[in-house]
Amino acid sequence: MDCNDRANFALACIGGGLTEKQTVDQILACNEQTQQHGLILNEQQALALAQARTEALKENRRIEFGGGMLDKLMMAVCDSSYVTQENYVDTLHEWIALFYELKNQTWDTISDDDLLDFLKKALNGCCHGSMELVADRAMRLAEHIHCGKKLDSFSLEEE
Description:
Layout: H1 3-29, H2 31-34, H3 43-59, H4 70-78, H5 85-105, H6 112-124, H7 131-146
Helix pairs in contact: 1-3, 3-5, 4-5, 4-6, 5-7, 6-7
């Protein structure tokens, strides 16, 4: 491990320790709204999601402050007819990884809210709840952006 790796690891540990409790609290606070859709997370699940976020940020070499996008991700999926209590945690884990990867793959040219809207429309629309299809559409969007095109010219429907 070289000096930069140690510094990054130390910063991740310090940052993770300082914000992990806040992130878990932020996730659990979302239960008030998500329970209206029959979706509840316990503290252990919230901690696992906070850790998944930290790992996704590391893997994608990104930083965020506070809870970042977790609450918005949760709100984006909680009203989907394809998300149930049984698949809620797994869906959130997949969305966390996909969201941060897609932010990188689209070179941060799409706002967080527009990206969440895209993912939500894909999940509830042409992908019919399939995270595999959502990930496929997301990578097609990234290719679209790499060709110099904009989000509003991308069609979610199969070509």
